[in-house]
Amino acid sequence: MLVKPTVTTYNMLVTPTVTAYNILLSVIPATKSYFIAVSEEFVSCFKEKGILTSLMGPFVLGIGMTLSGACPGMVLAQVGAWSANSIFTLIGCLFGALTYGLIGPLVSKISRPKKCFENHQNGPDWGIGGR
């Protein structure tokens, strides 16, 4: 008997694959410097964001996912497949993007940290990507 693949099945297969790929990128000498540069670029985005901003975003995203019962990453596939209530998830995504565009700069300015985030990732003591 064949099991119909679902989004959960897809996520269960893709997540370990992507994780293994990232681990390989961080170990292979040819891509190690690129991986470290990308990691540092990712962490540097926290220099202008405070704890309030970093906590509020995932909190609002979680509330939206709970209310809609869907993941916004798959909303276009859900709308294309005519999943139940997927149009409301799409409208919520668009409304959230509009709201973020309008009040995001204000919230970032209000919550900007006085002391910038320090990058301790890939430090020389860890032997991962010594500088």
Automatic annotation (TrEMBL):
What InterPro entries does the record tag this protein with?
A: Sulf_transp_TsuA/YedE
Which Pfam families does UniProt cross-reference here?
Sulf_transp
* Residues that span the membrane, as ranges: 59-81, 87-107
**What is the top-level taxon of the source organism?**
Eukaryota
Keywords per UniProt: Membrane, Transmembrane, Transmembrane helix
Q: What is this protein called?
A: Sulphur transport domain-containing protein
